[in-house]
Each structure stands twice: as C-alpha cells, then as structure tokens.
Amino acid sequence: MIPSLVPRRMFFTKGAGKHRESLQSFEEALRNAGIAGTNLVRVSSIFPPNCKIVTRARGLEQLTAGQIIFCVMAECRTNEPNRLAGAGIGLAIPADKNSYGYISEYHGFGMTQRTCSDYVEDMAATMLATTQGIDLDPDKAYNERKEIYQAKGLIVRTRAVVQTIEGDKHGLWTTAVAAAVFVL
Predict the structure, then answer these.
(1) What is the rounded average pLDDT of the residues 100-123?
(2) What angle do helix axes 113-131 and 142-151 make, rounded to 10 degrees?
(3) 31-36 LR contacts (CB < 8 Å, sep 24+)
(4) Secondary structure element (H or E) that encloses residue 46, with its range
(5) What pLDDT, on the 0 to 100 scale, is given for residue 136?
(6) pTM (predicted TM-score)
(7) Could you tell me where the DSSP H helices lie in the chain?
C-alpha cells in the first residue's frame, strides 16, 4: 500500500536573489527563502484538512538536504532596471477544520507588496467561497466580499506571503519567490 502523502504541517517562506544569470538569481532567491537545498515539487492549490501552519523557522528545521518537498510556489524574474516585480501566495482557511482550504499564487509586475497581498488573499478566499456555493460579484471590493465570507461563517482566516523586488539598476537578473511549503 502506498503511504498517504497528505501534509500535516505547512509553512510560508519568501526570498529574493540577484545574479547576472537568470537561473542563478532564482537559486539565490531559493537560498534566501531557505529551501535551496531541497528538491521542490510544485503542487496545486489545496490546503489539506487539519493541516497546521508552523513558523518558517520550525518548518525549515524539519527539512533535510536533498529531501523532496511539495510546495505551492510563485516566482517572478526581471532584468529590466527598476521594474517592480512580485511573487505572492495567499491562503484561505475554512471554518470547518475537517474541510480543505485554498492556496493561490501570483507572479507579475507592477504591484506593491500590499496590493499583491490583498490580491492573493482575495483569490484564495474567492476559490474557497465558490466551493461553498457562494456567488460573488467580482466588481465588489475585496473587503466587502470578505465580510460576506465571514458573515456566512465560511472562512476563518486568510493570509499571505509576498516578496516584491525592484529590477537591479545595472540589469542583473532579479528574482522574487514566495512559497507555501508542505511538511509530511
């Protein structure tokens, strides 16, 4: 029988890196995030039922070099001087801990850290709300929709981790990463 791969814990991390080579700048960002020494397997957007969020420090303690780890990751790279780039992960946790939640990711240009944080939280909350049968007006502000979610008792908490960067003024590759890392 194949063992269950349902994670029991998850932590958030982020990082930034610069280098003359694109791939090396990504590696530097992973080092800054603390996960460069692992083999990353990107997965989609489900936060498992009964999964516990731990601190970055505690999560990193549970990893070993070369370990295969599962994560939801966003990354953005630029070599355009002064270009604002960002990578963000959002999480929406349902009120019922026995139900699954949603993780969203965003990578792109021109958003501030605050705007990107709100955006990924909104995406995760919207995905979760639609599984609960709630029809939402996409033109309403996130805070208005958030009140609807909470009033209906569906979403207990949303959260985000975002890394924004400004392209290096000398044209070096600059990379932002944000990740939700699962620990089995």
Answers:
(1) 95
(2) 40
(3) 33/177, 33/179, 34/60, 35/60, 35/63, 35/69, 35/71, 35/179, 35/181
(4) strand 46-47
(5) 67
(6) 0.91
(7) 22-33, 56-61, 113-131, 142-151
Q: What is the mean pLDDT of the chain?
A: 92
Tokens at 168, concatenated: 């290096």
How far is residue 137's CA from residue 165's CA, in Å, rounded to a whole number? 32
pLDDT, tens only, 61-82: 999 999 999 999 999 999 999 9
| Token code pair at residue 38 | 């692992």
Structural contact between residues 117 and 130, judged by C-beta atoms closer than 8 angstroms: no
Q: Is 20's pLDDT higher than 90?
A: yes
Instruction: Tell me how long the chain is.
Output: 184
Domains of the chain, each with CATH number or no CATH: 9-183 (3.50.20.10)
